[in-house]
Amino acid sequence: MGMQHQPSHRWRSPDLGMRREVELTHGRVDYYELGSGPPIVFAHGWLANANLWRKVVPQLAARFRCVTPDLPLGAHRTPLRPDAPLDPDGCGRLLADLVAALDLSDATLVGNDSGGAYSQCAVAQAPARFGRLVLNSCETPYDPFPPPQFAFLVAAAGKGPDTLKRALEPLRDRAIRGNPAAFGSLIKHGIDDETSDTYALPILVDQGVLHDATKAFHAASQAYVEAAAAKLIASWSRPVLFVWSPEDRFFPLENARRYAAALPDARVGLVDNAYSFTPEDQPERLARLIAEHVSVRP
To answer: What is the CATH number of the domain that holds 271?
Structure first.
């Protein structure tokens, strides 16, 4: 797996494909690429990275070009420039700039958890860059961003990187990560320690990663998602798929259905036996729904 030559928190699954780098206004962004065909870009949320999609990408790469970036949300490998804007619009701009830099045409953007919030911001800012949107268990304009259970991260980030780091220090213990107050309410079936280390440790061991995450967490606000959603409802007529679990503990299904009803072209697909991190809990079902969504012509 290549673990012997690098710290465990920097490991990425080989199932994501080749690691590449792209220079954007924000700084250097690592991404992983596998497959060919219509492009799909995958966006993870806070305290996750490209590994979130390691079980989804191989099921799609035979038909699609899968591009999976590490976003600057606390579990990435490469810190951005110190002045990179990382409020929700800034993170959305990073996603849109990545698609532009790679010259991806008619791309499908798939966002999970807070990555879904940033994906809405990306499409609202650069609608012509994207052909489809998949929102998977994430903030809608009717949900607080972040969910109330994680508001302490915003408060800690507001007091600075050292306070945020102290708040997250318990995540060094793998056993604690499975608690409901950590990842236990997000991932129903648990994950391997190898992947868990890459989610929990970077923010605790890399000062640049901590700096990026502090900015992103502190700037989180429902107002950005509300503004992006208003633009999409008013003027974005391309297809949107909501993939939701009825068991989701943070993002109510009724809010996804309400949002889908307001959009010009949207539908809801359900995934049972999963929490918010659907790519961890039910990757096969999620991959099938994404493939169907991308394959059907509008």
So the answer is: 3.40.50.1820
